[in-house]
Amino acid sequence: MGSLSGIAVNDMAGDYERKGEKINEEDISGGHAFENFSGSGIFSAAGDLNPDDSGKPETNRCPSDMIKASQETVEFDQEFSGIEIEKRDVPVEDRQEMSAMAENLNEVQNVLLEGLNSGTDTVVISEANRDEQIIPPNSKLPKPEAPPGLLNLLLDGDFNRVERSQSLKENLPAIGKYILDQSNSFSAAISRRISSLKESDESKSKWNNVTEFNLSGLKVIVKQKDENRDFSLKGRISFFSRSNCRDCTAVRLFFREKGLKFVEINVDVYPSREKELVERTGASSVPQIFFNEKLFGGLVALNSLRNSGEFDQRLSGMLGRKCPDDAPAPPVYGFDDHEDDTVDELIAIVRVLRQKLPIQDRLMKMKIVNNCFAGSEMVEVMIQHLDCGRQKAIEIGKQFARKHFIHHVFREHDFEDGNHYYRFLEHEPFIPRCINFRGSTNDGEPKTAAAVGLRLTKILSAILESYTSDDRRHVDYIGISNSEEFRRYVILAQDLHRVNILALSSEEKLAFFLNLYNAMVIHSVIRGGRPNGVIDRRSFFSDFQYLVGGNYYSLNIIKNGILRNNRRSPYSLNIMKPFSNSDKRLELALPKLNPLIHFGLCNGTRSSPSVRFFSPTGVEAELRSAAREFFQREGIEVDLDKRTVHLSRIMKWFSTDFGQEKEILKWIMNYLDATKAGLLTHLLSDGGPVNIVHNNYDWSVNS
Question: Could you tell me the CA-to-CA distances from 472 to 469, 521, 604 in Å, in that order?
Answer without folding.
Answer: 5, 14, 11
